[in-house]
């Protein structure tokens, strides 16, 4: 029994403290739909979730889960890369979740990549309301994710501290490259990036 949650669990805890009923939020990597459902339940009937994935398999699976829970009306499932999120989403986004890597149970070669993830992050930072949050769960290990992790962390270290708080948590005594959590909060005195 552990009280300190893993990176994914901690991302949910942070999102819960920021997101209220009626908010508009983004799931940048909908995958099997677990984060999309979590967000849809948080924003409630009056809220809106935009969920992105590049794989039909992910969107179909997510759509079925949403339908079974009768909460599909508050979610827009978008088959496009998150790097194009500004074409689909207006400003006033309260939270954006990135759960990086490949679809569990799917093709490991279809995975998030450093360049597109960083492009999406920049757009998410722009679309976010002041006081909003972006969470990233970064998976790496075995033969994948190392390049993406290094490039993302390098990008994050250079974000202007007057405009955003960037926090990274790491499990430093665990083997097998446990996922890293990053939270980015847009500060309330920010007018523009
Ligand atoms: C680790 S899974 C996400 C898990 C998901 N959040 C869940 O709750 O089940 C990562 C997903 O990112 C998707 N993906 C990869 N590149 C993408 C991109 N450029 N834009 C959007 N999704 C992408 C993959 O297809 C995969 O389904």
Round the Cα radius of gyration to an integer and report it: 16 Å
CATH superfamily: Vaccinia Virus protein VP39
In one word, what is the shape?
A: globular
The mean pLDDT is 95
> What's the CATH architecture name?
3-Layer(aba) Sandwich
Q: How many structurally independent domains?
A: 1
Structural class: alpha/beta
Cα-to-Cα separation, first versus last residue: 42 Å
H and E order: HEHEHEEHEHEE
- Assess the beta-strand content as a share of residues: 15-25%
Low-confidence runs (pLDDT<50, min 5 residues)?
Answer: none
Tally of contiguous helical segments: 5
* CATH class membership: Alpha Beta
Strand element count? 7
Describe this structure in words.
This protein is α/β, with parallel strands linked by helices and 193 residues long. It has a single domain, classed as Vaccinia Virus protein VP39 (Rossmann fold, 3-Layer(aba) Sandwich), CATH 3.40.50.150. Strand 4, helix 4 and strand 5 form a beta-alpha-beta unit. Helix 4 packs parallel to helix 5. The protein starts with 6 loop residues before the first helix and ends in a 7-residue tail after the last strand. The protein binds S-adenosylmethionine.
